[in-house]
Structures are given as C-alpha cells and as structure tokens.
Amino acid sequence: MIEDQTTRVTNVQNVLDGAPTGSECLVVIYGANIGRKYELFEDVCTIGRDPDSTVVLESDAVSRRHARIEKLMDARFIIDMNSTNGTYLSDTPVKPRAKLESGAFIKIGDTIFKYLAGDHIETAYFEEIYRMMVIDGLTQIANKRALDDFLEKEMARARRYERPLSVLMMDLDHFKAVNDQHGHLTGDVVLKEMAEVIRERIRREELFARYGGEEFVIVLPETDRKGGIEFAENVRRMVEGLEVYFEGQTIRITISIGVADFDLANHKGPEDLLKAADKNLYIAKHDGRNCVRG
What we know:
Blueprint: H1 12-15, E1 24-30, E2 37-39, E3 44-48, E4 55-56, E5 67-72, E6 75-80, E7 87-89, E8 92-93, E9 97-99, E10 105-108, E11 111-117, H2 121-134, H3 144-161, E12 165-172, H4 175-182, H5 184-199, E13 207-212, E14 215-221, H6 225-240, E15 243-246, E16 249-252, E17 255-261, H7 270-286, E18 292-293
Parallel strand pairs: 3-4, 17-18
Antiparallel strand pairs: 1-2, 1-11, 3-5, 5-6, 6-9, 7-8, 7-10, 10-11, 12-14, 12-17, 13-14, 15-16
Helix pairs in contact: 4-5
C-alpha cells in the first residue's frame, strides 16, 4: 500500500558525473546504480557477474558471463552467452545475437540499459539523465517525483479556482504470486504491458505515474468523485481483459482501485489526497479485490 514505495527516485547529483567522451555508451535507466554510464571503447565488451567483465552486475539473476557487445564492421551487436535468464532487447529474447540501434533498451537480470551512439551522444546522454528525473525506467511513465510536482500544481489550481480534482490509487492484485510463479522478468513485462494499456486512456492534461512497486496513480483534473469512479471502473475493466503473453506463458491480472476527490478542508497537500485514495484502495482490497471504492 502507500508505505511500500520501492520505485527508485533518482538524485541528479548522483548521476551527473560528466558526459561520455566516446561515441557509444550504455546508461543504466532502471535497477541498481541508475544513471551510471559505461563507455564502449573496446570492440568487445562483456556483461556479467564475473569481476573481470567490462560491465559487472552483482545480481543473482545475472550469469557470470551473461552477454557481450561486439563491434562488427560499423555495427554493434548484443550477444547472449547462454545465460540462465536470457538477454532481452526491447523485451525480445536475444537468440543468439541482435543488432543495436541508438536508443535501444537492453534488459539483463533486473537492470535495464539504454544504448546510445552517434555524433550527438553527449546531448543524448544529458537528455536521458533528464528523463530519468521524471520517467520510471521500467514502464516509461511518470515517476513519483513527477507525480508530486504535478499533483501539487493541480491542487493549487483546484484550490484557487474551486475546481474538481480526483486521484486514483491502483494496486495489482496478487502480484507477488505472479513473480513467484513466473519469475521477475515476467512480472516486469506484466507491469510494462499494463502501463501501456492504461497510458492509451490518459489525456494530455492528466497524469499516469508509477507510485512504487506495483502501485500506480492517475491524477484527473477537472474531474469530480463520480467522474473519477467511472474512469476507475473503465480502467479496472481494461486491466481485467488484458492477457500478457511472454515466453510461452499467458498471464491475466486484475487491479484494485481507490478513488478520492480533492477536499479543501481536509487535503492540505498532495500526501493528504494520496492517503485518502490509498484508504479507499485498502477498502477495495478488503472487499475482495478487482473492484473500485471511493
């Protein structure tokens, strides 16, 4: 629930340690050491738990010699080295190799890299660092930092002009069981596909954000409690109808949603409104899950 905030929030001072000096690099956009860059100077760069690897990832989900990136002619390729858990390029298994294009996402264990290359790599690097301040690396939607800023602004507007504002707090039902039965890689794909389905329903003036772990928030300006509940019910049905296919597995999920509308007397700041939505989310969970309460 609201106390379980496991999404990492990036501190810009921890990652702005200089622009790349070469023409290619990997940037960690999700996982441990977020924001760290690995410049690819050599024709062959290895990735794994082995201390001698070019990129060392200390995770049980990573093999000792997991993958390598090779330069062949004028192109770069990612090659899986018969790893236990596989190497993924934009959620597609690398079998055994795949060509890299600048901007490609590489997933190894619980780490996601973005591959950057080209004449304007310095600009691309700093743009990516900025994105990490406001975008969740896994789902590519807004993160908690962006949510806090957006909600504070919208609450101030709602207060000043006496306009309605609603918030939806959402939590995937039994998501731990998905991870336990199918693995964390599958769990990550479930989160991404669910986020993509919901994002298509979000208008420009609204915000969809990952709050932490399997919790998500939608902010609906100019929407009262009744409208918020109707919107939440539509989202609930969309998620209920979603089927996620990954490596021969079919996973279906449901979601519980708590809705709260802005109350000038009781909601002094963003956390007050989020807590009200979270309270209703708790009721939805208690009432059997896969439902909306508000």
